[in-house]
Design goal:
Elements lengths: L1 E4 L4 E8 L2 E6 L6 H11 L7 H8 L23 H14 L3 H30 L4 E4 L6 H14 L3 E2 L10 H12 L34
Parallel strand pairs: 1-4, 4-5
Antiparallel strand pairs: 1-2, 2-3
């Protein structure tokens, strides 16, 4: 069971092999990393803010009440826009001291880690995976790693995640996946349209990220 958490995506995948994935849930609006960055901007943290929030959280306690968005339903999709709005509003109204900042960051870490864990556990109880796998830039977050690791342990299965130093630029990940595809003899013809910019395909193409469809 794969958990992808990054600045642009928060997805759950059922992974049969390196080239055979089934999407179980996807980002409906702000992704986890995007929420970290936008909330971090609201408290004057440099971009990207996720790593700094995680660092500040280590000296704080999760004392602020933040929502666990989109968890009161049975689906596996993610929505972090409500958390982003609530956290920014709270930051503007309640943060007065350095201690408040540390506690706020700990609370934000906890809210996002809880949300990812709730959805992952929901999928795991149904699918019975052999392991839980975490990847993407947000995979460097210590609380998310801890919570998903604890979930995997409670289910008696391994938790897999890259070293934190590898949770950065995705070029190496893309190259490795390309190698996995190529070594199976899979390839597109040279007349394939490459669409290297950022728009989502229509709703009937769930899970396919295309990019600017007006510019092949």
């Amino acid at each position: 069971l794969g958990v992808l958490a990054s600045g642009g995506h928060t997805h759950l995948y059922w992974i049969r092999s390196a080239v055979d994935f089934e999407e179980l849930g996807q980002t409906l609006d702000d992704a986890a990393g995007e929420a970290f960055d936008k909330i971090g901007q609201a408290i004057n943290l440099p971009y990207p803010a996720g790593a700094r929030i995680d660092e500040l959280a280590k000296d704080g306690t999760a004392t602020f009440d933040l929502p666990r968005p989109f968890t009161d339903n049975d689906n596996l999709d993610f929505s972090f826009s409500g958390l982003k709005t609530a956290a920014i509003k709270l930051a503007r109204e309640k943060l007065e001291t350095k201690r408040d900042i540390h506690n706020f960051c700990a609370s934000l870490n906890e809210a996002i880690a809880d949300t990812l864990t709730i959805k992952t556990e929901r999928a795991a109880r149904t699918r019975k995976p052999a392991a839980i796998w975490l990847a993407g830039g947000v995979a460097a977050n210590s609380r998310i790693r801890q919570k998903l690791g604890e979930l995997a342990a409670s289910l008696g299965i391994p938790f897999l995640a890259p070293e934190k130093k590898h949770c950065q630029d995705n070029a190496a990940m893309i190259a490795y996946n390309g190698w996995e595809i190529a070594r199976r003899g899979l390839a597109h013809k040279l007349d394939l349209e490459a669409i290297p910019r950022g728009a989502r395909m229509p709703d009937d193409s769930r899970g396919v990220i295309c990019l600017d469809s007006e510019r092949p």
